[in-house]
Amino acid sequence: MSREIFYSGLVQLEKPVKTNLQAFADYGADGVELFLDGPQWNDKEARFSNVKTYLNSYPFTYSVHGPMFDLNLTSENAAVRQTALNELKKTIEIAAEIQAHHVIIDPGICMFQIFDKHQAQRRALEAIMDLQQHAKIQAAYCY
């Protein structure tokens, strides 16, 4: 059985993507998980266009991890939920453009006992179904 070694950008979140890719190549990575979170991904479209050519210069298989810090698909606040959904849709679009193997989504957490955990689960499921539909559209568009 063949095994591939993947490296996650989370471990070097504070460093530029280009620096991380070279380090991962130097360590013999077969694949890389792009972690699209932190200040360097605040403007995903601009940042991605700057590194897309660079990504294609490596023989890696890519996966993409959506942003998870300060985002929550289960939030009691509708604006927070919508922002999280929009950011994860951008993540899916980037993943489709580089033909990433998969996308990792953290749906969020129900942080306080005063909130209904079942409602949070319903919100997460609804958002994930929306994201799955968005992913299908992106896959059809990009492949």
From TrEMBL:
It comes from the Bacteria. Keywords: Isomerase. SUPFAM superfamilies: Xylose isomerase-like (SSF51658). Signal peptide: none annotated. InterPro entries: Xyl_isomerase-like_sf, Xyl_isomerase-like_TIM-brl. It comes from Virgibacillus halodenitrificans (Bacillus halodenitrificans). Residues 22-131 form the Xylose isomerase-like TIM barrel domain. This is Sugar phosphate isomerase/epimerase. GO terms for molecular function: isomerase activity.
